[in-house]
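Lecture 7 notes. Example A: sequence first, then its structure tokens.
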Amino acid sequence: MTLRFFHCFASVLLLLSVSSLALAQGRAVLQDAQLQQLGLQKTWSTQLPIGAKGAKLSSLAQAISPDDMQTVFEVKHQGRSTMFSSRDLSPFGKPLGVEGAKAKADQFVARLDQSKEKPELVEHQVPEVLLLAQSSSGVLTALDGQTGRKLWSQLPGQAFYPSQKASADAKYVATVNGLTLYVLHRENGELFWKRNLSGPPTAGAVVGDGHIYAPLMNGIIEIFDLQDATKPVGRFQSYGQIFANPTITEATVMWPTNRGFVYAGNSFDDKFRYRIEATGEVIASTTHLAPSLNFFATTSGYVYCIYQRDGRIEWRRSYGEPIVASVPAIDDIAYVVLQRGGMHAVEAYTGKEMWYVPGVSQFLAVSGEYVYVLDKSQRILKLEKASGALMGQLSVRDFDYFYTNLESDRLILGTLSGVLYVLQETGKEFPQVHIPLKTGDEEEVPAEEETEKPEEPMEETTKPADGNPFGGGGNPFGGGGGSNPFGGGNPFGGGSGGNDASGGSSDSSNPFGGGGGSNPFGGSNPFGGDDSGGAMDNPFGN
């Protein structure tokens, strides 16, 4: 009797556990009927391999390469659509190319019955889209942004060491794990080279035109040659600490510091351009509107629109509330999300108010006609782009990760446990891309007198500082004289012993100022966990 009771009890527990697992897996699901009400459809969904138990999705980056385009010929006929891509393979196993794909499409059109309806042939230029998902365990996963297919998954560095947001260009992926910068091949994730940073990183390294820019806690951005890691390191020096990823354009690399300064240097070499002193702290990354404008906002409620070539302020406007998010600027409209909720849409070139929607907490994406945002009640709102009118809403309470998409019209959301959804407007098989798809020399900028100006300035503007990133004067920190411009042996203030810039121990090998030893974090495992990171193999052998 006791044995039978035990078996029954074990069966009940098994059923309960299976039911709980099924319930957990059934959460964070978007039904097709729900999406259709908002005029959306699922592009794809997946479960990310985030690594060891307890790991979470820590960052997501989207890289759209303008250098790796495919041409797709779409034949529309009697409600059906047939695609022919330049990357389709011939019978000999080689890509068709543009001419081959066009010939295949023409042959297909010639075989269609055109007595009732003439087929339409549409040419699409489709860029390569890469999603880079970084987990707290250190696992970096690359996905095809069009299909969701997993391209590769690697652990660059040590498991559960802090990893920063990844960045990529057409050939390489850059990521930081611990105190080491790793450069991987974009195609397969294999290691290209790695190099130690001179200090603790505070944001992700970004790939520019032949260079990689890695921001450090002490306000330095180290510059590495993308092709040759043995070349000497260049650097940009700034005042304050950097907590936001730098923004790369064809002309500039721009970054803010926690002291209210925004800096800019060339994105093709190590030449410094200018510094702007803002009214308030700048928390989020700057944004770019091609060909010539950059935007940023401050915690004191100001939004700045600047001319990226020389830092001239086009307009500045106060919103009276803190702003801690970036300012997306797409299709000549800038979107300002207030920290306490609400979003302003303004004309990008003049700062003139277009419309305002209360309760908005995050910008998600924008298409040709609509803007998609997240509100404080955890709902996706579909707004008319021209007026801000509410066109529909969708509850997404089971999701806790939302990507601000400045690069395309796709909606990207998921969970910290690794569920990822990509949504598109119904019938839009190809993404609408918001970044320039042609590269070359520095962008052509309209002459100063031809640049559109507001009829009346929004507010009296401030002038950018000169070429000195510290703003003139022998010592910007007011310290003693001598060859050290920081006025003492330690630019951060604190102990004066040795060469320790953190003001702690004089052991220069430890940038964190902790105890001695080869581990800069102090202890055998700086994060208190098992160094194996859940018995995950480390392909890099460090």
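Example B, a different protein, same format:
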Amino acid sequence: MGANDQNLFRESSQNPGNRESELALEDYLFADASRSNCRWESFGGIGSRGFLKDELLIKLPPPAPHDVMHDKKLALLAKRSLSLSYDLKELKGQQIGEKWVERLIEAARILQLTETEWYFVEDDDKGPFSPRNEIEALHALELNVRGLLMTVAAEPESPLFNLHKLVLERLNGLKSDSTAPSKNVSEINARLSTWAAEQGIKSMIYAAEFEGFGRGGAASTNLQTGDLVIEIPQDALISEDVAMESDMGPALKETPELTGETMVLLWSMRERHDEKSKYAPYFAALPETFHTGLGFGIGGLKELEGTLVADEIIQAREISPHVTHFSRINESNNTLQLFALRQCKAGEQCFLSYGSLPNSELLTFYGFLVKDNPYDIIPIDLDLPNEIPEQVELIEKYDVLSYHMVRGFHPLPTQLVAALRVACMEEDEIASFKADPRTVMISERNERDVYESLLSTFDSLLEPLEQQDDSSPEDTEETDPSDWDVLLAKQYKEGQRRVLESVKSECISKLSSL
């Protein structure tokens, strides 16, 4: 179970046609509170009834020095007059103004932006910027305020308590895939639970079957934010040390070029067939087969021919395998711990996020797809003019980029439109235009060229995505199981087609309004 800033547990189903919500993008449950980037500080003395005398600051952490978005994040915070420090003592009475809270959350969202999310942020866009960004921002604030509550005395109806309540409500109000588990626990799942208990594993979830998703983790009790969900002793974890201490250790030591991951892989390949192995119940509970893009056959690759993911799969086969990074061991008790980021009711499915990954990566390394994945993007690389000084000046002054992206069911990015406006300028427009191409249309002719150019680009990208037969990518009942790769390939192409059709529709709409 990966938990490097991951969340809610779900084991991957082996039914690729039933994975529309597998990623659980909105559900971000497990998080390691001990590794939070949040900060809190309090100043002033404590009064006799528990009120702070001077000031109570909620301090958001500045971007890390190594953050590639460091300067841009600080610039955007300044542009929007957002602070990293918020004083609760400035509030009057017991009430917390909605605008005050929204500005605090807006600042937290900016601090959690990735490069891709940043590209799509418009001037008037206050967020949420993505499911991942929203959950990270709210989680950071919740840890921040909770930490402050644990160190100061405050009345139950104080602004600090009310703020914590509001943040929790936002966290717990995020969209959830709530599915009921099967009431019948399979023999394999029962043995897995028994084995886990014997290994000293403490768990507030149990293995269960969920209709449409396969096996996953169901909460055995009502979980609240911050609750310890799973605690695994270090000696129960499969690791490089386990492989080296086994009877395979001497052979592995004689091959120094092997990486730790490769050692564990070789050890696992043999160990899973040993009925006397300590991990036998665990290996028995694993799926017999696991299909990913790395295992695509000729049929699947042919179906993907001409798409962006085809090259990714071929390149991935030539490099080191994809490795999931795990949570750090808690050195105080030598256990791996996963905590609840938000509440999950008893019997509900708990989810572990795979991260903000596009379908190309999910297909290649995990073997499933998410319908209308908000992290699916189509890259567009422009050849910007570099000879006419006035055009070059515009490009440099307004930071017009050559690399761009589009995503489905969202407006076309301002940066992309601005770049094309500059690229499509004619001589008279170059000499006379002095405004910001990100906000001002250069001319009706220029604007028409921009959207016609985009339409031509999208049409060329759509060509390899057209279905080669009349079968629906959603129709899995009559598909030969041996053609799982062809089925996944068709589903991927359908998703990419939907993205391109949506941005193409916007171009047509813009042209019709000129």
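Note on Example B: The first helix runs from residue 70 to 79. The CA atoms of residues 466 and 497 lie 8 Å apart.
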